[in-house]
Give the backbone structure.
Amino acid sequence: MDQIVLAIECDPAQPAACAPANTNELFETPTLFNIGSFGVNRAMLLMVLAALVVIALLLVAYRRPRLVPTRFGAIVEGVVGYVRDEIAVGVIGPEGVRYFPYLLSLFLFILVGNLFGITPLINFPVTSRMAVPFVLTLVTWVIFVILGFVRNGFGYVRDIVWPSTVPVALRPLVGLIEFVSTFALRPLTLAVRLFANMVAGHMLISVLLVGGFIFIVEFDSKSVLGVLWFALGIPIFAFEIFVALLQAYIFTLLAAVYIQSSLHPAH
């Protein structure tokens, strides 16, 4: 199975054509350094960097408010205003202002983490590691579940398992589906959706751009194919910018929808 890439023996003169000794190296993030017994890897550093980038963006845009903002300030204010008006307030209602800081932080962190995948010298979307979207999902899940119990008490579960808007004959089935969906499937699907999309895009770009480069450099007889292969990756690279923005929006939007459903479970 190790030689599935080539039917011939690996040629040390062309290492790009050799199958890796262990395919886990394609997915693992090695430890860069240790702080005591705690190992720090690339993903951890990029998560910290993503958070610092978000803080820097907001500080630069808002530390000196202007009557007429700069172009950069206008862009940031537009993003902030959209998350506040269209997601926080637009989905949750007037109470959404209370949850706006969390939703804004969520959106910007995911967006920056996604864009790392197409950032030169980084080329690694932080959200392509399942632990990152899972933790973000877990925090969101804890918020909307606790909020549901605080706001509605035991009626939160009652309205889920026995929905009053559904015919009585269907309530046991619909209630069971809603219970499993709310307390089990929501955190799983929310995390997997972001993770799967970022992994797929990252791998597609890697295959096209890196594969084309290898064809050009290592196999002169197939350089035309390499150029075409590399050129195909360029529009995919541009499309990943849209995917990064879309996935951040979808994750934040669904987080707002889940919070709204906890505030008003009967709806």
